Amino acid sequence: MCRGFSTGQMCRQGKAPDMAEVRNRLREIVGASTNWKDHQQALAERASLSQYLAQSQDELPAKTMKDSAIEAHLPLGTQPALREKYLNYHNSVRFGRILEDLDSLAVLICYSHTWNKELKRSPLSIVTALVDKIDMRKNIIYPDCDIKFTGHVTWVGKTSIEAKMHMSQYHDGAYTDVLDATFVMVARDPENKRAAFINPLKLESPEEEAIFQQGEINKTRRVELSTASLLKVAPTAEERTLVHNLFLNTLDTRTVSFRSRILPPNSVWIEDAKMKGLEICHPQERNIFNRIFGGFLMRKAYELGWANACAFAGCRPTLVAVDDIVFRKPVEIGSLLLLSSQVCYTEGMHIQVRVHTEVLDPLTRQHSTTNVFHFTFRVEKDIPNWILKSRVFASKLCENHLTHSQKTIY
Where is the HotDog ACOT-type domain (predicted)? Predict the structure, then answer.
């Protein structure tokens, strides 16, 4: 299956493209180049494509889910040289690399939905708004077996679009499920400065109508979560009770004082369960729009979150789910990217980790949040309890973590 573009552009001898071809096709659509100097010039020339933007969604032809259906392969089994890029020291696949591939594929799926075959380049700049959720179906990803990605558009608004993807791996003579992912993308003008309209979605069966309705439910849930911020509403009774119980467990019964706090057995103060990192954002990590590639940001955040969970638990953690990755602001080339990882919730053998990224302007010393990531890991041993020590961490718990942790773990 290779839809959305002509066979000559997307496939070789009828075969589905590999991930290298996916990225090459994205560069063709936008007019980007692998050469840094040519890349900058091509993006500067994209402003002229604004004349091809629709003034309303009604001007655009409706597309079906089949129009955006894409299958792509990651030939780890047949291309040994490729394995080095994906291999980790546990003889498994680096999941951060998979996040990069999912991000690229989601963009191409959305371009397949909006593609106008009469134009040589797309006037749209399609960028990642958030990763709604990634559910792991399998814990082991083999480094020497081919991987298959499939996906298509599942919901469309006026300027935003949802794409669902499925990943499977060929092992023991058959493909088995590995993960399901839901990405939300937004369409912008050629210079990525304002919103742009995208093609409406034409539903052709009751099954497709059900898929679309799930997209509507996802949208409503995201809106509700955004309005539940501690900056807007007070903590719920459940959140207050949880934080208060955690506090009571640390009181010294001999003094019963706020100043006298004790750490219960097999516990860690939450402020000691964190890690930080720094990345200098070089042109090598740019995306087709001359910003830092969202997949690169996800990879770095995941690897820091994994390391934090590993150090906290004292053993190798396994990813269970990726939840609510929000892209608040693009990261410019040359930025100083600060990453901060925090264990924010534990229950049973599950560990919830939040990774916050921000850019630092060295001239003004201003910090700006760019992304927030939530990862859930599982370990095969008892893990320490995390204990709140200050009101600051209590407020952060209510603000960022309870909803995500409960939604993911249960």
Answer: 68-191, 271-383
